[in-house]
């Protein structure tokens, strides 16, 4: 039975049908043989005859005796008196006159008694009806057994799984250890469930990330809006009392214009992030040594402007990696651009590769991240106090790009206090 469990549906069905046919054929043969034996027993033996002996004495008294006997025995005992047709013979024995007559026993249904005729007819019906009955019952039992052994459990599992998916519940598992088609179907369904769960989790993470980003942006927008409102109220009150000079008006307008530029940069960054959500990742084989050399040559220009040292450490030994080089370049450009603003003397970039993951670390010797930024998951934008124009949206862009490439980005500080940003890309 364990072997049947791991057979395919087609071979199992054929095996069930053949087994049913063999059993039905054996039962039908036994039934027909039994009914035929019963009929033979009911009918008289075709070799039997009635031997009638009639005796009469000299006084005229007659006695008649009829005995069923095999024809061969009759032929042996009175060969001179018997013929194959109804014959009669006379033998004189003393004073008795003996007559012998032989009559064939009719071997037919009409010769049976009514009770035997009923039994005989029942046996004839049984010879036809019972094989048909065995075939029908065999087909029914074959179908029920095949359904119970091969279809019932996987269909129940798939029905339950479909209902749970319809109820938006993906926290379950389908397990049907069988090598047949239903086992493959259950395995495919389980794979689909896992993919759905992963996609739902990614969608939830994306929505949660967008919610945190919107909260962070709303918080950052509050300051420039409050500044513009404050300056506007100040101008309104000052003009009404003629208490403001032309120079002061010019200074306030310059501050309002400066703050409006900050708002414009915020909106530009938000549009950039929105476009990144729709970006299609283009994975292709890249010769990483050449790619690393090209990126170092380009990104070193950012550090040279600030007279910073760029340490570039590539420990990847694989010749080719499957990744989107544009996404990797853009992430590094944003992170090094951020590090340039806070580093004192140098910035270090390290690459490593293990089990399909490219890990990149960008660190500097600056003041590092504030502890509240490291502790808060909602901190997408980071603005240093010494760089008022920096919007800090670069980290948000890098997070989105890492997620699009199947990776993640984490923030930390080194033991010396500098900022450390590590991101992992699926490659």
TrEMBL record:
Phosphoprotein among keywords: yes
Q: Which reaction does it catalyse?
A: ATP + protein L-histidine = ADP + protein N-phospho-L-histidine
Domain HAMP as annotated: residue spans = 149-201
* Residues spanning the membrane: 12-33, 125-147
Keyword annotations from UniProtKB, A to Z: ATP-binding, Cell membrane, Kinase, Membrane, Nucleotide-binding, Phosphoprotein, Transferase, Transmembrane, Transmembrane helix, Two-component regulatory system
Which InterPro entries did the record assign? HAMP_dom, HATPase_C_sf, HATPase_dom, His_kinase_dom, HisK_dim/P_dom, HisK_dim/P_sf, HssS/ArlS-like
Alphabetically, the GO molecular function entries are:
ATP binding; phosphorelay sensor kinase activity
Please give an example of a GO cellular component term from this record. Answer: plasma membrane
Q: Kindly report the protein's main subcellular placement as a broad class.
A: membrane
Top-level lineage group: Bacteria
Q: Does the keyword Transferase apply?
A: yes
Question: What does the record give as EC number?
Answer: 2.7.13.3
What is the name of this protein? histidine kinase
Species for this entry: Candidatus Merdibacter merdavium
């Amino acid at each position: 039975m364990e072997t049947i469990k791991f057979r395919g549906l087609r071979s199992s069905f054929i095996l069930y049908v053949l087994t049913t046919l063999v059993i039905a054929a054996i039962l039908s043969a036994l039934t027909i043989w039994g009914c035929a034996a019963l009929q033979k027993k009911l009918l008289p033996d075709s070799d039997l005859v009635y031997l009638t002996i009639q005796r009469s004495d000299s006084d005229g008294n007659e006695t008649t005796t009829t005995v069923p006997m095999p024809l061969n025995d009759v032929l042996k005992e009175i060969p001179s008196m018997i013929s194959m047709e109804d014959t009669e013979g006379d033998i004189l024995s003393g004073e008795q006159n003996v007559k012998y007559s032989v009559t064939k026993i009719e071997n037919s249904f009409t010769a049976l008694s009514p009770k035997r005729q009923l039994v005989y007819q029942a046996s004839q019906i049984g010879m036809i009806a019972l094989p048909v009955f065995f075939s029908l019952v065999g087909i029914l039992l074959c179908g029920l057994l095949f359904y119970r052994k091969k279809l019932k459990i996987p269909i129940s599992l798939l029905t339950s799984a479909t209902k749970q998916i319809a109820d938006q519940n993906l926290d379950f598992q389908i397990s049907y250890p069988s090598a047949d088609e239903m086992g493959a179907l259950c395995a495919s369904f389980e794979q689909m469930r896992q993919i759905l769960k992963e996609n739902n989790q990614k969608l939830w993470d994306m929505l949660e990330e967008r919610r945190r980003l919107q909260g962070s942006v709303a918080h950052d927008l509050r300051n420039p809006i409050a500044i513009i409102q404050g300056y506007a109220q100040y101008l309104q009150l000052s003009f009404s009392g003629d208490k403001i000079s032309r120079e002061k008006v010019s200074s306030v307008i310059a501050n309002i214009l400066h703050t409006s530029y900050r708002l414009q940069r915020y909106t530009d960054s938000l549009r950039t992030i929105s476009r990144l959500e729709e970006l299609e990742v283009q994975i292709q084989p890249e010769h990483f040594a050449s790619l690393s050399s090209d990126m170092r040559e380009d990104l070193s220009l950012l550090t040279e402007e600030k007279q910073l040292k760029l340490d570039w450490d590539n420990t990847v030994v694989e010749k080719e990696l499957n990744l989107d080089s544009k996404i990797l370049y853009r992430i590094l450009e944003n992170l090094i651009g951020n590090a340039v603003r806070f580093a004192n003397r140098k910035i270090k970039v390290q690459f490593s590769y293990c089990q399909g993951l490219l890990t990149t670390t960008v660190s500097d010797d600056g003041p590092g991240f504030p502890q509240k930024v490291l502790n808060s998951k909602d901190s997408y934008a980071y603005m240093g106090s010494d760089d008022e124009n920096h919007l800090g949206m670069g980290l948000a862009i890098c997070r989105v790009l890492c997620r699009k490439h199947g990776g993640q980005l984490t923030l930390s500080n080194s033991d010396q206090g500098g900022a450390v940003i590590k991101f992992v890309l699926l490659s």
